Amino acid sequence: MATFLYRLGRLAYRRRWYFALIWVLLLVLAGAGAATASKSSNNDFSIPGTEAQRAFDLLEKRFPGNNEQNASARIVFKAPEGQKLTDAKNKAAVEKVIAELKHSPQVAGAADPFVGKTVNPAGTTGYASAAYKVKSMDLTEDSRTELKDAAQHGRDAGLTVEVGGSVLQEMPEGGSEVIGIAVSAVVLLITFGSLVAAGLPLLTAIIGVGIGVSSIAALAPLLDLSTSTSTLAMMIGLAVGIDYALFIVSRYRAELAEGREREEAAGRAVGTAGSAVVFAGLTVVIALAGLMVVNIPMLTKMGMAAAGTVTIAVLIALSLIPALLGFAGKQVLARKVRKAPPGAAADEKPNMGTRWARLVLRKPVLVLVAGVLGLGAIAVPAASLELGLPDDGAASKSSTQRKAYDLLSEGFGPGFNGPLMVITDVADAKDPKGAVQKVGDTLKGLDNVATVTPAHFNPAGDTAMLTVVPKSKPTSTDTEDLVHAIRAEGGSLKADTGAEVLVTGSTAMNIDVSQKLNDALLPYLALVVGLAFLLLMVVFRSVLVPLKAALGFLLSVVAALGAVVAVFQWGWLGSLFGVEETGPIMSMMPIFMVGVVFGLAMDYEVFLVTRMREAFVHGERPGQAVVTGFKHGARVVTAAAIIMMSVFAGFIGSSEQMIKMIGFGLAIAVFFDAFVVRMAIVPAVLALLGKSAWWLPGWLAKILPNVDVEGEGLQKQLAEPVAPKAPDADEDRELIKA
């Protein structure tokens, strides 16, 4: 592989105009496809194989026109202190708000709380439900403005008016990626000391993300992709795009420092660092594509889209980077290097990576024990992990959604915000009405039930819908126990009456999603870690190095989960990170962290340890090989990790609890993995293992393909004498410029 990539790198360097033109053309074509594609508004969230989904599907089939996925709003009213909503002045103000709302073109209807009897017994709090003709992502800004204006008119009349519901769900605001790019530019400039060298990774990453995201937008109508599919692709594509280019540019500069000609340096950089890029990219693709084992269509599509963007990032690093290096010339070097006189001796002072590696090699046991015990202690809270999906109760206390949530809890009880929808299929029941009556009586007799609404039959009379309001809040374990209790009663009710009882609604759906993700975590881990172990065994031709990589990754992820639990579930240091409300950890967090962090962790592992393997294969002692790996790789791995942490940490400032949690979790996970596991535990373990680290059984060595990621075969080929050839026209021009 190294030989093939070496030739590719030299070809791209010589034919730089062709390669640059091809990628620019691909970007233009992808952009044109995205611009001309019809808008995809599919944001359906389904969880096949769960009772909540089966009930939802039955509801859509038996209650035609009851489209629960269209946008909805709940406008909550509270009378001034000492007054009631039924007072003439307050009643008129409420009715005026409802009348204004009905005039909005996208509103299908709005229920008057006095007609619909949605005022609490005390008469102080009530709500109006508004249904829209379109999904929340298709709402115009005018519709949201009209809703806000109507609510404000109610406030001007003296009422407390707050709004909740899916109508306020908007696409996440951009900007965090711009912050990440800005931080990346600063880190790259410090790392390389050259504007050109710093700009290359940023330019190629933006091109790769542009092609990937535009392609997703162009294919969205054909593949039925949601508007959120490109979110993960953009984040991961930007991350790995910068990383991969960073490593190849860094290796190119190192080859120049050893006295190589520029074309030769480009070929060797792609042949060696490029090999690591290929296998690092493969581990990320495995982690992202592996999300399909969860069997949640939205996650599968997001994972595959992100995997495609990572593939583009790898191809750009292997072909566009050497082409751009050809355009950059000597400008890719730092100014002091460019201005140094020919033959000037390089600064022999050991760099920080060398000094750190030597320190670890002197005290490997101490470093290993300190690293493992430290991460182990931080991981302890993960044993108390509680999963759930956030609702408006987790929103910022200053938001209208949270205020509406709190008003309903105060006026109607904590369970009012999370009603359970019980669908009763009586198509096979001998006495449909009697069966539904018995279901209702059974539900009323269960613990933790506040109210059960009268049954509502569909026109055919073969399905009834009942609403159960728990006494506990939606995210509590008591509500989860109630869902399980209703489902447990379903078996006996079917045996007695012939009616099938199914529980759905947002609360039940959240419980099922959490359970499904929890059940899928171990199989996902086994798949991703297992395949990556085999891949790394091929790369490093070792059994212990891949095992160490996998165990180190698991340690860093569990520690990161422990930190997330401590901050967001227990509230430790919550005020420092702006955590206003503690509660369950988002259900997708563990599996999301595993996928994203595993890919980035294996990037750092491959780039750092490949250089050690290369030095060992070329004759260095095991300890010296570790020092050599850190000498050449520590600086760029540190820069890559800081860039990723900065990108993720930018999300901590979000007012959305879910986004804040993702940002914190990914940032702390990258910190643990890059600086504790890869920079401390890895060299300590390799120092203790010595030559055993690179041991591979003879029978296994015969089976595994030799991909020559360290470039040993390439070095032998380049060492053979080759007849000189006349430079081509491009080379002539380069010589003249030089």
Structure description:
One of its GO terms (cellular component) is plasma membrane. Belongs to the resistance-nodulation-cell division (RND) (TC 2.A.6) family. MmpL subfamily. Residues 729-738 have a biased composition (Acidic residues). The chain folds into four domains: 1-36 and 177-338, Up-down Bundle (Multidrug efflux transporter AcrB transmembrane fold), CATH 1.20.1640; 72-165, Multidrug efflux transporter AcrB pore domain like (Alpha-Beta Plaits, 2-Layer Sandwich); 350-398 and 522-718, Multidrug efflux transporter AcrB transmembrane domain (Multidrug efflux transporter AcrB transmembrane fold); 419-504, Alpha-Beta Plaits. The chain has helices at 2-14, 16-36, 51-62, 88-102, 141-156, 176-192, 195-223, 229-257, 262-289, 297-328, 335-339, 352-362, 364-379, 400-412, 432-444, 477-497, 506-540, 544-569, 589-617, 622-649, 657-689, 698-703, 712-719, 729-737; strands at 72-78, 107-110, 125-132, 160-164, 387-388, 420-425, 449-452, 456-457, 463-470, 500-504, 585-586. By secondary structure, the chain is α+β, with helices and mostly antiparallel strands. The strands form three sheets. Strands 6, 7, 8, 9 and 10 form a five-stranded antiparallel beta sheet that branches. Strands 2-3-1-4 form a four-stranded antiparallel beta sheet, with helices on both faces. A two-stranded parallel sheet has the order 5-11. The protein is built from 24 helices and eleven strands. The two termini are 31 Å apart.
